[in-house]
Amino acid sequence: MKSNVANVINISRLLAATALVLASTSASAVQPDTATVAQPARTTVQTAEHISELTLKNGMRIIVNEDHRAPTVAHMVWYRVGSIDERNGTTGVAHALEHMMFKGTKKLAPGEFSRRVAQLGGRENAFTSKDYTAYFQQIEKSRLEKVMALEADRMRNLVVDKNEFAKEIRVIMEERRLRTDDQPVALVHEALNATAFAVAPYRNPVIGWMDDLQHLTAEDVRDWYAQWYAPNNATMVVSGDVDPQQVFKLAQKYFGKYEPMALVRTRPQNEPPQTGPKRVVVKAPAENPYVVLGFKVPGLHDVDKDDDALALEVLSAVLDGYDNARLTAKLVRTDRVANEVGASYSGIARGPVLFMLDGVPAAGTTTEQLEKLLRAEVERIARDGVSEEELKRVKTQLIASQIYKRDSVFGQAMEIGVMEMSGLSYKDIDRLIERLRAVTPQQVQAVAQKYFGDDALTVATLVPLPPDRNKPAPGALPADTLR
């Protein structure tokens, strides 16, 4: 993924499962204030030739994807909670808990979880996004039960020690400095979101604002854990060389004993209509200027009905979906007015979404000029449309990505988990490809005409400053910071 896209995953790239998004990466930000505790029957549903599903009595869903090409397994537990569910003053708490999940339980000492997985010959990690938090292990298939037992233990028995938390929050603050405060493009995207969204929680960074991190407490993390880490808010995805019935038995053994909890969902924080363009300028030490345009557009909530979201995905691919796509071909290679350009869109989100255009101007071009040139390429499609031949090339890329995705058991698990956490379904995966394949040139032209006016636009511009010679270089982060 290009660096200028800044953690936004296209549906096509998502289906290729080549990114762990922090991005990032779901339908409907509007949830009921309270959710009753579900008590579904314990039934197995064969949903596809190679995918089976079980719901435990406590509400935890188990999805098993069979792939017997190699004796390996990807085991993931997804919690449907992310930074979208946070409140002002405690931003970053979802990510902070993710760190603390490796710092010990009633049975395990801090760091012992990771040591045990390594001793089993596996690897493990976790990630937090706006919409969800997930934990995974990749392991030889005979070791699945042992990592499942470890994961089940920390669903209910986590110990958030105040001394461990005091150390870890410093690591998180350093992570923010390294990955955001000292990265000018990351600062620009953070400012873009904070400006584009007046109310929606997507205005806050996943890692949290520094002031909130400085005031976050171990009690805040314990409360978050108690509120959200429950079996009826979790989905297990197991992909690889496994027998579904055996996986279901293990899930019942280790997770079925936990009681469900009443989940109090976040109140709706719907974004009010935007009535004019918004602009923000970020001044930071950097080598080059940079500009990013974000347009508020619809997301993907129903694969069979949301035609515009699918057309926007194809529009993104037309602009920046392959090596010689329109933006690069025109602005970088032919006109040489930009060193780098991009377009990105992902409609899979629980909250509102943006279609983004961005770029680094070449010498002699200003960010204001590049902004107009980027918009002109969308306007050209709105005016002249796209050809069947161009769409055929784009769709070939989409289909190829789906095929390549199936080479990875972890990629398949990622794909299933993201779809489920986002309010869609793994059953929609193949249907999504079919629907993208059916997008017409007229639909692409129609969305280019409809969604790219000034009233939907937010522009964030980087004004480069000379480097601060007196500022010390950031120190290296501990290995477990890279979760």
Automatic annotation (TrEMBL):
Keyword set, alphabetical order: Hydrolase, Protease, Signal
Domain Peptidase M16 N-terminal, first and last residues per copy: 61-207
Gene3D superfamilies: Metalloenzyme, LuxS/M16 peptidase-like
Domain Peptidase M16 C-terminal: 216-398
Protein's GO biological process: proteolysis
Keyword match Manganese: no
Coiled coil ranges: none
UniProt family annotation: Belongs to the peptidase M16 family.
Name this protein carries in UniProt: Zinc protease
Source species of the chain: Oxalicibacterium solurbis
